[in-house]
Predict the structure.
Amino acid sequence: MYEHKKIEEEILKFWGENGIYEKAKKKNAEGEPFYFCDGPPYATGQIHPGTGWNKIIKDSMCRYWRMSGRDVRAQPGYDTHGLPIEVKVEQELKIRHKNEIEKYGIGNFVEKCKSFATRYIGVMGKQFERLGVWMDWENPYITYKDSYINSSWLTLKMAWEKGLMHEGIYVLPYCYRCETTMANYELEYGEETDPSIFVKFRLAGRDNEFLVIWTTTPWTLVANMGVMAHPTFAYVKVKVGNEIWYLAKDRLDPLMGLIGASATVLEEIPGRKINGWEYEHPFQ
């Protein structure tokens, strides 16, 4: 019987005792350099399947280039800035509001965040090693270190000096509890059941002809500026009562069943033929 756990442990032990990773790097030291930039995971806990899968895919690429004779630089990284770690520490300290951080002491809170991150850098590193990933685990880049922060500022300075930066307007989510903007990937989503609606848009210059659209965000209709149609999908021109409707072919039967009406198909057209049609705003 194949005992994968036992075999994996034996291989890891062999690699460690014989310095196989170091030998592989030394063997290719004169090869063409290959720089691998490891997009860092947040050091907020133990790895999950997605984190492990991500790192294994990266390791597979690095191994390919090593076996191709390239001198691979594979420095792992850990992201230790931002809300994910702060929120975890707030949970540990049972902090519910931002003013409690000021009472605790901002400096103390920062050190607590660093301590939290450092602890899980060790945990995650060992778990990645257990997966058999070959990277420079003794020399990771860590975003809370001054050397990394100074490099980031230097990069911004160089970009500014080259005229690559400008001030503009960018819309971001805002968390009132955390009192800060958030990255889109920091949002947490829940499943919601929400009503959707079909809307008729009267075609300009045509008598009783309408585009039928479907939306789950009816509040956006006020500012509507366009209707999307897939260029290769099939659409139908149908007669419903004394009106002509244009809608996606696949949605005809569900819509008729929903409103309890019948339709006569007059023509089938590809979406690209709808391009350029003009319509009247539904609230016009």
Summary: DSSP finds eight helices and eleven strands in the chain. The longest strand covers residues 209-215. Residues 106-130 form the longest helix (25 residues).
